[in-house]
Amino acid sequence: MTSTLRFKPVNAKPFIAEVMARSGQNLVLCYQCRRCAGACSVGEETGYMTPDRLIRMIITGDRDQALDNALVWKCVSCYTCGARCPNGIQTGRITETLKKMAKEEHMAPREPTVAYFHDAFVHSALRWGRVNEMEFMALYELRNTVHHLREQKFGALYKEIKAQASLALNMTQLKRMHLTFLYVKGRSEIKRLNKKFRKKS
Ligand code: SF4
Ligand code: SF4
Predict the structure, then answer these.
(1) In ligand 2, which atom is closest to the CA atom of 80?
(2) Residue 1: CB partners within 8 Å, gap ≥ 6?
(3) Ligand 1: which residue has its CA nearest to atom 8?
(4) Residues 28, 31: Cα–Cα separation, whole Å
(5) Mean pLDDT by 10 residues, the chain (201 residues)
(6) Contact between residue 97 and residue 19 where contact means Cβ atoms under 8 Å apart
(7) What's the domain range around 155?
(8) Hey, which of 26, 145, 150, 171 would disulfide with 176, CB 3.0 to 4.6 Å?
(9) 42 lines ligand 2 (CB under 6 A)
């Protein structure tokens, strides 16, 4: 992916302020040394989009591109970039913030499967206090299936079902996936904390 930087001074100030406040990261400390770029775990997947370039997009007020790019959707929150950054900037927190902002603006996710995975994970964890693997897989696969059917991608749907069935079998054999219904005590407390967090963010 190649990208042209579009400096939008009017948009820049409020956008930087919002991302900084919500992510807790001091972006204006970034001096574009690119140490984070060489460390990014998903660099091969995201090509042009590296953490330093994402920060530059925010600083220049290019909201559209900052909310819709491969790094925002493919970042795995490993925090390697933050460990390498001389200014301690955690791009993983920034990508999470931008993903939330894109969702709030009802933007179509660039990577729908990542969005489905994320939604199913959060839904299950909030409901049961931990990820209930059966429910999580069912929710995720249901949305994936509907997506493929809508797009009429029958070959992709077949491949997906085959791959996931094989993965589920392997994980069950290795006792990494449980066929029982998993939950924890104190679920109301978790829901209360989530509600409180949502009000603040
Ligand atoms: S390592 Fe830190 S200062 Fe350097 S470009 Fe990346 S975010 Fe900016
Ligand atoms: S936290 Fe995200 S942006 Fe940073 S190194 Fe990991 S994958 Fe890359």
Answers:
(1) 5
(2) 46, 47, 48, 49, 69, 70
(3) 30
(4) 8
(5) 64 93 96 95 92 95 93 95 96 96 91 89 89 88 91 90 89 84 85 81 62
(6) yes
(7) 112-200
(8) 171
(9) yes
Handedness of CA 137, 138, 140, 146 (dihedral sign): positive
- What is the structure's pLDDT at 187? 86
User: Is residue 4, in this structure, part of any structural domain at all?
Assistant: no
Dihedral sign, Cα of residue 156, residue 70, residue 46, residue 78: negative
Q: How confident is the model at residue 5, as a pLDDT?
A: 61
End position of a domain, from candidates 104, 136, 167: 104
Measured by CA distance, the residue closest to atom 4 of ligand 1 is: 33
Number of helices (H), then strands (E), in the chain: 12, 0
Closest ligand 1 atom to the C-alpha of 33?
4
Q: Are residues 56 and 79 in the same domain?
A: yes
Q: Which pLDDT score is estimated for 179?
A: 79
**Residues written for the chain:** 201
Distance, CA 63 to ligand 2 centroid (Å)?
20
Q: Are residues 100 and 116 in the same domain?
A: no
Ligand of minimum distance to the alpha carbon of 25: 1
Same domain, residue pair 32 and 91: yes
d(CA 79, CA 162): 32
